[in-house]
Amino acid sequence: MADYSMYHALGQGENIDPNDPRRTTQPAPPQFQPPIAPNPYQPGGYAPPAPPGQPQQQYYGAPSPGIGPPPMQSPIDDGALAAQMGGMSLGAEPASHGTARRKKKDRHAYHQIDAPAGSSQPFNGIPPPGTPATAFLSGDPSLGPGGQFPAAVNPQFSPMPASPAEFAARSGMMGDALPSPTMVSASGQTKVSPDEMPSVPLSRDSVQQYFLSNMYPTFERLVPPPATVSFVAFDQGNSSPKFARLTMTNIPATADGLKSTGLPLGLLLQPLAPLQAGEQEIPVLDFGDVGPPRCHRCRAYINPFMMFRNGGNKFVCNLCNYPNDTPPEYFCATSPQGIRIDRDQRPELTRGTVEFCVPKEYWTKEPVGMRYLFVIDVTQESFNKGFLEAFCDGILAALYSTEDGEDAQDGDAEVKRKIPAGAKVGFVTYDKEVHFYNVSPALEQAQMMIMPDIEEPFVPLSEGLFVDPYESKAVITSLLTRLPQMFSNIKNPEPALLSTLNSALEALEKTGGKIFCSVSSLSTWGPGRLFMRDDGKHAGGEPDKKLFSTEHPAWRKIGEKMVSLGVGVDFFMAAPSGGYLDIATVGFVSSTTGGETYYYPNFIAPRDNSKLSLEIQHSVRRENGYQALMKVRCSNGLQVSSYHGNFIQHTFGADLEIGVIDADKAIGVTFGYDGKLDSKLDAHFQAALLYTTAAGHRRVRCCNIVAGVSDNAKDSIKFIDQDAVYTILAKEASTRLATTSATLKDVRLGLTEKTIDVLAGYRKNFLSQSHPPGQLVMPERLKEFCMYMLAMIKCRAFKGGNETSDRRVHEMRLIRSMGALELSLYLYPRMIPVHNLQPEEGFPDPQTGHLKMPPSIRTSFSRVEPGGVYLVDNGQQCLLWFHAQTSPNLIQDLFGEDKNSLQSLDAYTSTLPVLETHLNAQVRNIIEFLRTMRGSKGLTIQLARQGIDGAEYEFARMLVEDRNNEAQSYVDWLVHIHKGVQLELSGQRKREDAGESSSALSQFTGLRPNYW
Question: pTM of the prediction?
Answer without folding.
Answer: 0.82
